Amino acid sequence: MTWTRRDFLLGAAAALGGCAALHRPPVDLTAPEGPLVLGWRWVPGQQRYYGLTTERFARAGVSRRVERWRYLVQAVSGEGVATLAASLLEVDAGRAGAPPPPEALVDLRRRSAPEATLQLGMNGRLARLPTQELEASLPHRLLALRLPDHPVHLGASWPDLELGSLLASLLPQRLDPHTRSQVHLVQFDLGERGATAILRSEIAVSSDAGASLELSGESVWDANRGLLLRRTLAGRSSIGGADPSERVTATLRLL
Fold first, then answer.
1. SS3 159
2. What is the mean pLDDT of the chain?
3. What DSSP string describes 2-58?
4. Got the DSSP string for 63-111?
5. What's the CA gap between 251 and 27, in Å, rounded?
6. Please, are residues 183 and 199 in contact by the beta-carbon 8 Å criterion?
7. Calpha distance 176→184 (Å, rounded)
């Protein structure tokens, strides 16, 4: 085979390009260059299953409650607000190592609002919630992870007004509560399974009289699918002489 000058130059360029590629510095996949867009992605007819585990740690022992929920997407508006039909599929509760009697589970299911319809925006804002009672609405509130309304960079923070307002409502208004609620984008990873974001929530309500409520925890967000993978919140209270050593932890996990 006869090589022309053009063939030689093209071959040399390709070889040099290959060498350069071998010596190119590695790309830091955990530090994206541009802003990130985080938002829910819903499709009508889609079903998501989540498990909720709530644990209360007190001097008397540990009580645990486990629930399994199905969220069916009934419709999605032009603005991206999804109407979800939530169904409680399973519930179990009791002291660690001591399951409750059957009649207690029947009452627990009744108090858990087993059927509910809620509306959730792309930014995690709850446009509709069937009940404001904390225990009955806990899985839906955990699902509604507050996301930014605009693209953000790693290290950005934004308020979680819904959870902040909820905690403030638990303190007597005469105490004039002060609220601080923030969500922080603390990590972003591009791995073999796709892009995931780690977000940290810090919500605190306090009063000049010393009463306080605190919630904090982390969430794992699937940025490719627009989906919450896991969210954990731990809370403490000093209202009404509550035991400062007592704490409650709630974890919502995609099944």
1. coil
2. 75
3. PPPHHHHHHHHHHHHHHHHHHTSPPP-TTS-SS-B-------TT-EEEEEEEEEEEE
4. EEEEEEEEEEEEEE-TT-PEEEEEEEEEEEEEETTBPPPHHHHHHHHHH
5. 34
6. yes
7. 26
pLDDT tens for 148-162 read 989 999 999 998 877
Q: Cα–Cα distances in Å, from 187 out to 26, 33, 38, 151?
A: 19, 13, 13, 15
Q: Residue 95: what are its φ and ψ, rounded to 5°?
A: -70, 150
Smallest CA-to-CA distance from 224 within 39, 44, 33 is with 39
User: Pick from 118, 138, 136, 137: which is nearest to 128 by CA?
Assistant: 118
Structural domains of the chain in order of their starting residue, each with its CATH number: 33-254 (2.30.230)
Give the phi and the psi of residue 188 in degrees, each rounded to 5: -145, 120
Residues 239-255 have pLDDT tens digits of 655 566 677 889 999 99
Query: To the nearest whole percent, how much of the chain has pLDDT over 90?
Result: 34
Phi, psi of 220 (to 5 degrees): -115, 120
0.85 surpassed by pTM: no
Instruction: Round to whole Å and give the CA distance between 181 and 216.
Output: 10
Residue at 233: amino acid letter = L
Which SS3 state, helix, strand or coil, does residue 230 take? strand
Residue 217: both structure tokens together: 């925890």
Instruction: Specify the pLDDT at position 246.
Output: 75
How far is the C-alpha of 246 from the C-alpha of 143, rounded, in Å? 24
pLDDT higher than 50, residue 5? no
